[in-house]
Amino acid sequence: MSRAAMREDKSHLLDDKDRALINAYQGGFPLSERPYADVGEKLGLSEEEVIARIGKMLDEKILTRFGPLYNAERLGGGLTLAAMKIPEAEFDSVVDQVNEFPEVAHNYAREHELNMWFVLATETPEGIEETCKRIEEKTGYPVYNMPKEKEFFVELKFEA
Amino acid sequence: MDEIDRKIVLATQGGLPLVAEPYKAVAEDVGISPAEVTERMERMLEDGSIRRIGLVPNHYALGYAFNGMTVWNVEDSHVGDLGPKVGALDCVTHCYLRPRHLPEWPYNFFAMVHGKDRETAEEGISQITQVLGDHNKGHLVLFSSRILKKTGMRLGSSG
């Protein structure tokens, strides 16, 4: 998938049932024997239709994921936000270098001197420092590590 | 997290199987009963190891074209009180206290603002400005110009 495709507004591809699924189940997907059937019953869809719609929205990249979202820190791992200042001419090649690290979970270009912002998730807390160092060695540019010291609020508010 | 939890994480971090009995499929993968899978996942939800289970939309695809990371230089003595008030605003999905990198990066408070149009995003930013009042010593809005990668957390399959 091209990088531009991820930014496209695809909301015209959604019908009311897709919207209902997105709006009702950004969390709280049931831990039951037949969860798709249970979700379908609430929304007036068959089990097969729920499965097909979720699969289709994943294929169309309307959903980036479906399933449990794990908290790396609670699992004993490390998590941080980091930024880099990369000259425009080298930006694309450094993106490729940085994205090659499996520890890079998300990466965004932003309009600032610090123009690359990424989330690192590692299996151990120490993995964060190590990964920052390895990225610095690989790219030749410093990594500004900005681990969260406190989280005030994380809520799901996206409406389809 | 014990070895079985870890296997559950590995089996589901890429997504839940799109089959009628997804937890049964995971159970077969892990080598335990479906009931044990759901019990363990229930516990991981309760203790926060799983943030949530569900659909994760690509917000651009839903028409959220304006996604700004707003960063604020908030007085340390007030950020603890003001943080939750900013987080409670409708337009804010995440907000965090992070270390400054002085002198070039004086911002210690990050709030993600999302809007389907620029006006909504800007309205959100002005609401944050009001909440922070005099305790805000400067801020920036960094709109994301591109998503470069979005895979989510991945545990390695070794170790």
Textual characterization of the structure:
The complex is a heterodimer of chains A (160) and B (159). Helices cover 34% and strands 22% of the residues of chain A. With 160 residues, chain A is an alpha+beta fold. Chain A has 2 domains: 49 residues; 68 residues, Alpha-Beta Plaits, CATH 3.30.70. Chain A has a 4-stranded antiparallel sheet with strand order 3-4-2-5. The radius of gyration of chain A is 19 Å and the shape is elongated. The two termini of chain A are 22 Å apart. The relative contact order of chain A is 0.14. The mean pLDDT of chain A is 92. Chain B has 159 residues and is of the alpha+beta class. Chain B has 2 domains: 44 residues; 78 residues, 2-Layer Sandwich (Alpha-Beta Plaits), CATH 3.30.70.920. Chain B contains 5 helices and 5 strands; from the N terminus they run αααββαββαβ. Chain B has a 4-stranded antiparallel sheet with strand order 3-4-2-5. In chain B, α1 packs across α2 and α2 crosses α3. The radius of gyration of chain B is 20 Å and the shape is elongated. The mean pLDDT of chain B is 91. At the A-B interface, α2, α3, β1, α4 and β3 of A face α2, α3, β1, α4 and β3 of B.
Integer-rounded radius of gyration of chain B: 20 Å
The oligomeric state is heterodimer
- The CATH architecture of the largest domain in chain A can be given as 2-Layer Sandwich
Mean pLDDT of chain A, to the nearest integer, reads: 92
Q: Give the fraction of residues assigned to helices of chain B.
A: 25-40%
The count of strands of chain A amounts to 6
The CATH topology of the largest domain in chain A: Alpha-Beta Plaits
The proportion of residues in beta strands of chain A is 15-25%
CATH class of the largest domain in chain A: Alpha Beta
How far apart the termini of chain B lie comes to: 13 Å
Strand arrangement, major sheet of chain A: 3-4-2-5
Largest β-sheet summary of chain A: 4 strands, antiparallel
Structural class of chain B: alpha+beta
Over all CA atoms, what is the radius of gyration of chain A? Answer: 19 Å
Order of helices and strands of chain A: HHHEEHEEHEE
Shape of chain B: elongated
Give a count of the beta strands of chain B, DSSP E runs of length 2 or more: 5
Sequence of secondary-structure elements of chain B = HHHEEHEEHE
Portion in beta strands of chain B = 25-35%
Sheet with the most strands of chain B? 4 strands, antiparallel
- The CATH top-level class label of the largest domain in chain B: Alpha Beta
